[in-house]
Amino acid sequence: MLPGFGLSFGFTLAWLTLIVLIPLATIFLKAAGLGWSEFLAVGFSPRAMAAYRLSFGTAAMAGLVNAVFGLLVAWVLVRYDFPGKQVVSALVDLPFALPTAVAGIALTALYTPEGWIGQFLEPLGIKVAFTWIGISIALVFIGLPFVVRSVEPVLADLGREVEEAAATLGATRWQTFRHVIFPAIGPALLTGFALAFARGVGEYGSVIFISGNMPGRTEIAPLLIVTQLEQYAYAGATAIAVVMMLASFAVLLLINLIQAASRRRMGA
Amino acid sequence: MIQLRGITKRFGDYPALHGIDLDVAPGEFIALLGPSGSGKTTLLRIIAGLEFQDGGSVLLGGEDVSSLPVARRHVGFVFQHYALFRHMTVADNVAFGLSVRRGKDRLPKVARLARAEELLRLVQLEGLGSRYPGQLSGGQRQRVALARALAIEPRLLLLDEPFGALDAKVRKDLRRWLRDLHKQMGLTSIFVTHDQEEALELADRVVVMNQGRIEQIGAPDAVYMNPETPFVSHFVGETNRLPTTSGEIHFRPHEITLAPDGAEALLVDNVFRKGAVWRAEGLLAGSGQFVELDLPSSGEAPRLGETIRFNPHRARMFTADGAQTQGESR
Amino acid sequence: MSGRSPTTEGPLARALLIAAALGFLGFFLLLPLLTVFSEALRQGAGPFLDALHTADALAAIRLTLLIAAISVPLNVAFGIAASWAITKFQFPGKALLITLIDLPFSVSPVVSGLIFVLLFGANGLFGAWLAEHDLKIIFAVPGIVLATVFITFPFVARELIPLMLEQGKDDEEAAISLGANGWQTFWHVTLPNTAGACSMVCCCATRAPWASLARSRSSRAICGARPTRCRSISRFSTTSTISSAPSRSPLSLRCSRW
After folding, report:
1. Where is the ABC transporter domain (chain B) (predicted)?
2. CB spacing of B54 vs C5 below 8 angstroms
């Protein structure tokens, strides 16, 4: 038995309480001041519900896109050699480094009907900027590194032996991927998706430019909080914040439970 | 039946195999024995199709499979670290080869699982089908890996250091078990090992490899008793070497006759019991060469500092270029 | 006589996969980046560089380094303690603890900004007490440090947990069996084993406050060509909510009065 459990666990819990739990508790405290009926009225008003639907829906959509393409990018970076690989690898971190508002402005500029991409979509009748599609694109931008950086190390660590074993048993390359590789990197992919999703739900800076902010249609939940603040409705802002936080927390907890279960099962 | 014809392989500038020729008869159990870097694992992987040779050809049952990918060679391969699929149950691992089949060869799921259960019974893991590999011991994992390889009814079974990662006791049990299984099934098998004891105990024929070449092919007894090269003499079994002007004389620790007027004299500086014999170690008077001798343990243990006079009675002489010039005693 | 290794794809599949990945990256990352540069340099490089050399920008850089110097060691210490407890021991509620550590990842920057205003703002929980003792947290270095620590809180633990999990505890147990005490084991075995990841984590954790600060500052520099949008930019993200000068940010001004 290693020493240090008391110290490390105690310190973890104390710091967690001080930095995360107490601050978050103030939100709940403030929201509790509203009273139940008013909390429901503000937190679940039609406008708020539309905002949640938009925020969670677009974040899930972007998370899925990132899960597919993030896996592809991680695969290509780990498995293949091609000129400029280092540059591509560095490019993946760009959304971490670029101020989100800058990203938002850049994406908006790209997708407005006069933009570099928007001008080609406009004649086809596809509107991106100021619609949910635009919001999803911004969230894809923000979330990509989470998926790539979660999957990459696991993919790199995956032993070649299991793939060879599958091949000797007659599996095609696709069957090997589907039945052997994918389940092995599944937990990491799920983590990446969860992080991208959680980040997407709360994202503000990069979204509000491209979203158009029409109440009930393209108004994201974080913006609703800001709007409430601007109307001095602080308790209302905290009510919406509480609903968002609980939902995010539930998603994260679910995913961590799945991971813990799969780790136990594999006896690691 | 396997025929290897002039197999060569290079890894960059490093020549791994220089023209390997080998014939394996149906039902034979072959050991590829050699130190690490001798090319034995590379050769095994080339036979499986996990690696491709630069020159030469691989024939399985008369058919040239040199360009056939591994998935179509129907060769069972047991990996050194088992390479079990950790997220699948033991039964799913064993049935994997059946479940990836397509078309008319595809068995229904019930039949696949029945087959898996049958194989688990064969490897004495009945009832463990619903466990995960992480929940098994090393020896059990090894047998799952074997059952998985056998599930595809391979025409040939290849095992890479099959007992390398196991502890001594399990290793010994599994060895005996594998030999019995081979007798029972009669499947042509090749295994790679660096452990000469393992090779001598299990194999019908031992292929001794060194630096990408075959040094000797023969029955275990022949390889041990009549090594054809200094390398084989030294690598298989224990050997004392006496340098002479024209080359080296090799003899095993037990291949001696004690004689008061013997030509060699060993000054004993260490003695211990080695199974049924006393092992005496020390330097030879005159040449100062380090030598190990086995003395009957019915007698008294040699004392430290004692001088033992003896003659090697079955020595082999190798000239400097490795050729053997003289078979029996000098 | 050369065949294809069974653990890779054919040249065509490989080319297609690389092309798809690069296409995606080009479309979603490279194009926006190019737009940023084209917008920033629309009026030539001159105004852009001028914006970067203002006293404002230099002060911002100095502030960022100061904040990183305070918050990074705090979070590294926490991350190591947390990953030690989580990976080397079994205890009930582990998944819950990991989720709580992840939580700041998922909390909207808008919400975390709101939290600190609720806590330390003029009418916040500790507002009166702070005013009494003439302490400033919001709109001052302590507030920015707090916000940064909050945001970067999960980084270190998130990086270290998988690594320590993979390394297991064999090395540590060996050290203990050789007579090392807990601290010696930690200093001479665990820390060197995780040093690579630790230094990477420090980069990440430094980047986070940098990025969030840069959000308000450099976006102002970059969108010089679009004055109407500048006003709103300065109030994004936690850090800017409670750090930017009140006169520039209507939101934080209101919050501070509340």
Report:
1. 2-236
2. no
The first and second tokens of residue A99, run together, are 């101020």
Question: What's the whole-model pTM score?
Answer: 0.79
Question: Who among B53, B56, B70 is closest to C6 (CB)?
Answer: B70
The boundaries of the domain holding residue B219 are 2-225
| Subunit partners of chain A (3 or more CB pairs within 8 A) | B, C
Pair B217, B226: CB distance under 8 Å: no
Q: Do B34 and B95 reside in the same domain of the chain?
A: yes
Domains by residue range for chain A, with CATH: 34-96+135-267 (1.10.3720.10)
Average pLDDT over residues A125-142: 88
**Is residue B65 one of the residues assigned to a domain?**
yes
Residues B91, B28 within the same domain: yes
Q: Give which of A55, A137, A204 to mutate to test C binding, by max C Cβ within 10 Å.
A: A204
Domain boundary among B192, B225, B258: B225
The model's pLDDT over B105-124, given as tens digits with 9 standing for 90+, comes to 888 999 999 999 999 999 99
Q: Mean pLDDT in chain B?
A: 90
Contacts of C205 (CB under 8 A, 6+ apart): C68, C71, C72, C75, C76, C152, C155, C156
As for how many domains chain B has, the answer is 2
Same domain, B165 and B212: yes
A162 contacts B76? CB cut-off 8 A? no
Q: Does B48 touch chain A (CB under 8 A)?
A: yes
A260: its two tokens: 């813990």
Which is more confident, A59 or C153?
A: A59
Q: In chain A, which residues have their Cβ closer than 8 Å to the Cβ of C6?
A: 163-164, 167-168, 173
Find, among C4, B102, B37, B129, the residue nearest to A164 by Cα: C4
My answer on whether B165 and B107 are in the same domain is yes
Task: Show pLDDT as tens, one digit a residue, over chain C (258 residues).
Answer: 456 677 788 888 999 999 999 999 998 888 888 888 887 777 767 776 776 677 777 777 777 778 778 888 888 888 888 888 888 888 888 888 888 887 787 778 788 878 877 888 777 778 788 888 888 777 777 877 887 788 777 777 777 777 777 677 778 888 888 877 777 887 888 777 776 655 655 555 555 544 444 333 333 333 322 322 222 333 333 443 343 333 222 222 222 222
Give pLDDT, residue C197: 59
| Planar angle of CA A13, A16, A20, nearest 5 degrees | 150
B324 and B177 within one domain: no
Q: Which residue of A has its CA nearest to C24?
A: A69
Residues B81 and B178 in one domain: yes
In whole angstroms, what is the distance from residue A137 CA to residue A135 CA?
5
> Does the beta carbon of A120 lie under 8 angstroms from any beta carbon of chain C?
no
Of the CATH numbers 1.10.3720.10, 3.50.30.60, 1.10.240.10, 1.10.540.10, which one belongs to the domain with range C55-257?
Answer: 1.10.3720.10
Nearest CB to A170; choose among B81, B97, B132: B97
B51 touches chain C (CB under 8 A): yes
Distance from CA of A259 to the nearest CA of C (A): 9
Closest CA to C238 of C149, C158, C156: C149
Q: What is the CATH number of the domain that holds B18?
A: 3.40.50.300
Q: Find all residues with CB under 8 Å of C143, minimum gap 6, and list them.
A: C116, C120, C136, C137, C242, C243
Chain A residues closer than 8 Å to B74 by CB? 170
CB contact under 8 A, A179 and B86: no
